[in-house]
Amino acid sequence: MNHNDYSEIQGRSPGYIALLALLGVLILAGLIAAHAMETEGHHITGMTNQIVWGTPHVFAVFLIVAASGALNVASIASVFGRSMYKPLSRLSGLLAISLLVGGLAVLVLDLGRPDRLIVAMTTYNFKSIFAWNIFLYTGFMVIVAVYLWMMMERRMNTYSKPVGLFAFVWRLTLTTGTGSIFGFLVAREAYDSAIMAPMFIIMSFSFGLAIFLLLLMGLYRGTARPLGDKVLLRLKNLLGVFVAAVLYFVAVFHLTNLYITQHHGVERFILLDGGIYTELFWGVQVLLGGIVPLFLLYHPKLGRLRSSIALASVLVIVGGLAQVYVIIIGGQAYPLDLFPGMVVSSSFYDGVVNSYTPSLPEVLLGVGGVALAIAMVLVGVKVLRFLPRSLADAEVDPHHGATAEATAGQAPAPAGA
Amino acid sequence: MNEDNNNTDLARRRFMGGLAAAAAGTALAPGIVLVATAEAKPADQAVTSKVRWGMLIDTTKCADGCDACVRACNEENGLTRHDDPLRDAQWIRKVEVENPDTGYTHAFPVMCQHCAEPPCADVCPTGASFKRADGIVLVDKHICIGCRYCMMACPYKARSFVHEPLHDQKSYMPRGMGTVESCTFCVHRVDNGETTACVEACDKDGHQALVFGNLKDPNSEIARRLAKYGGTEIRKDLGLDPGVHYKGI
Amino acid sequence: MVAVRSLWRLPALLLAAGLAATSMAPAARAGDVPQPVIPKAVKGKQCVLPTEDMRKNHMKYLLHHRDLTMHEGIRTKKFDLRQCLDCHVPKKPKGEEVHVTSKQHFCQACHAYAGVKIDCFQCHSDQPSQETTHFHTLSGRPIGHPGHKTVDTTLSASDLQAMAVEGGNK
To answer: How confident is the model at residue B30, as a pLDDT?
Structure first.
């Protein structure tokens, strides 16, 4: 594909304007919430001295994890040489940067002293994984921007493979760093495990691809550009693999913990009697976010329906949010074990399960970050040539022509939908 | 004869006086030694690792229902109470521990343990959470960005976050909204040669369950008591080498 | 391309008009902002350094000193924020204090004029210093009161001896 095979979207339809306006309102609401938190203090949120990281962190971690996963599609093309995915690389890069910016915005605005961001970017304690993450996150944005340039500037196309490889390694390091934020915490029983980093990597594959799929289908439907089944079916099968892999990692994590008698308390809490956390774990994370999407994606008939694929993607995202919620907030709700084996109580909530309710400012801030990410993608595809004009089967894979896949009852992309 | 008698009387009285003085001195001396604290270091001298501040808490002397140390800390550091136990700063707290197998219950204070290997300092992205050369773990609020990662990392739940704008802070204990704080071993007093507020209050109330001093000085009260009676640490298995030791848990 | 040229003409004209208007404004424009009224210090004749030096560099001195205090426990008085406040802010009874929110506070008087936000007083008290709380021993004497380097609780041995001899003389 050459440069002319990509084009900006028109971006003048009432639907597009309305969507941008809605996103604008959500972003504004998020900013107002952040401002209120900065002037009034965090007492207006549901976060306390017991649950110190709340809904904003759930959204921020989800967005950051998904950001690194969104780059996967581009990596498959550049690093693993699957040329069929090449046309999708630009959108993949744009989505990666947008999700990361959205997540970082939420994280930074939730700080107790966001006015000290300059301090955070100039004073470092390199024993802290947080400090490394600041470099990894900002570096990621620069590297993906360069990667996009390599892909979009014809003279630079030869460099897109090495830069793509570098970006791939970088994003693996970034996700390892994000998982290690939790994995390095020796104090908390729910986290202190080496599996957190690889589990976050596989989560990123799953969440990133689900968002990418959803966005792809939405953009092509909204702009009436052809989106062939070949691309879609390959991607949805890949999503199924990633969802299964996440379930595997979760299973291994909990099974191992169940062998460790010391961890029985926290395992019992998450898996059995943690109330909302148990419900979220089994009902949303495992069932809605894992088993149901697997069924939808691999079912012989349902797996070929676009509505089914879209639903599966949405469920994976919801399940992912629940997973991050259980990890971050469930992990804090379970009390610290200062005196193993003893029954402890105090005026500082020792020995009791800590309660937490998401508050409006937190939710507005988190949703504002999501809105920012989506808005960035929508504006990006209008301003620059990120979207291929056509992803019809013939364009994407001209050598295969009419294969068995084409006869298996695929629904052709509707024109002018 | 009378003169002789008078001289003997005088000598005897002087001798009795001397004996009384010696006895009184001997009786008082331990009291003076016990109460004496270290001389304040000169203001222009940096702290060194020749000193390591620590605390010994004798839980057998900690009285049930007494919270003198907690009240003293709150007053000394200006920790305003908003009747919001979830968000109010609590630098020291009384913890009640019950052994479910035996039914034995006791209570004692827990505060920042001033670890030699503090996880809070390890995870702080800007280095605001740090350990001073003399072992006191502090938050440099000038560079604290309020990310609360140290609160996630502390195994003792020692830290509090300031959730509201503050006014009327004590001039010797700055604290502000959006930063994290914890027990400072009353560093403003220690640098001045005094002891911590909680230790003072416990002494004043007559329990004397808390001892503060230099762990590296073999002649200090805390070092001698630890050498003689031993002490345990909370979550010793984590290998953090806390500066706060307990007797009786 | 005539259309392009005429399109830029209007903004250019407006810009030129605006510039002319501001340059023709009376010189007294700059003086419309009142000079700050800096409260006189309540103690001492002179600051620790000459006024011009302090005006220009006080932030550097403070920033350096705070790191020394925080990380090394150096508590010399020269650039100690509390010393500044002790001299420059009057001690007032509760309810009448001058806080940094008003321009009558020494720091805010200049900072409001210069348009520089002060970060210090989110954490630091903006009032002259207080003493730490004192818990009195049974003898009634505070332990380790600042200025008393060593500690004495009650009467010393020589006092008792003197008293014993006195009693013996009666």
So the answer is: 47
Residue at B11 is within a domain: no
Q: How far is CA A200 from CA A129, A250, A341, A407, in A?
A: 15, 10, 32, 38
CATH number reported for the structural domain that contains residue A279 in this entry = 1.20.1630.10
Domain range spanning residue A219? 7-391
Q: Which of B169, B187, B195 to mutate to test the interface with C (most CBs of C within 10 A)?
A: B169
Structure confidence by residue, pLDDT tens digits, C64-114: 999 999 999 999 999 999 999 999 998 888 888 899 999 899 999 999 999
Domain tally, chain C: 1
For residue B210, give the H/E element and its range: strand B210-214
Predicted confidence (pLDDT) at residue A405 exceeds the cutoff of 50: no
Listed residue (B130, B93, B234, B114) closest to B185, CA to CA: B114
Tell me whether residue C4 is in a domain. no
User: What span, in angstroms and rounded, lies between the C-alpha atoms of B244 and B231?
Assistant: 9
Residue C158 contacts B where some CB pair is shorter than 8 Å: yes
Tens-digit pLDDT profile for residues B173-208: 999 999 999 999 999 999 999 999 999 999 999 999
- Using a CB-CB cut-off of 8 Å, the residues of chain B touching A181 are 149
What CATH number does residue B207 fall under? 3.30.70.20
Count of CB atoms situated within 10 Å of the CB of B205: 15
Domain annotation covers residue B122: yes
- Within 10 angstroms of residue C53's Cβ, the number of other Cβ atoms is 12
Q: Evaluate whether residue C6 is within a structural domain.
A: no
Residue A402 forms contact with B (CB below 8 Å): no
* Chain A partners (3+ C-beta pairs within 8 A): B
Domain membership of residue B198 (yes or no) is yes
Is C19 within a domain? no
Q: Residues of B numbered 121-150 whose beta carbons fall under 8 angstroms of chain C's beta carbons: which are they?
A: 130, 132-134, 138, 140-142
Calpha distance A49→A52 (Å, rounded): 6
Q: Which residues contact residue B179 at a Cβ distance below 8 angstroms, ignoring those fewer than 6 apart?
A: A112, A113, B139, B141, B144, B146, B161, B162, C123
pLDDT score recorded for residue B41: 83
The pLDDT of residue B27: 54
- Alpha carbon A17 to chain centroid, angstroms: 25
- Among B59, B177, B232, B233, the strongest candidate for a mutation testing the A interface, having the largest count of A CBs within 10 A, is B177
Residues of chain B with pLDDT under 50: 30-37
- Give yes or no for residue C148 having a pLDDT over 80: no
With contact defined as beta carbons under 8 Å apart, do A319 and A288 qualify? Answer: yes
Bigger pLDDT: C146 vs A188 = A188
Q: Could you report the per-residue pLDDT of A204-213, keeping only the tens digit for each?
A: 999 999 999 9
Q: Does residue C46 register a pLDDT over 90?
A: no
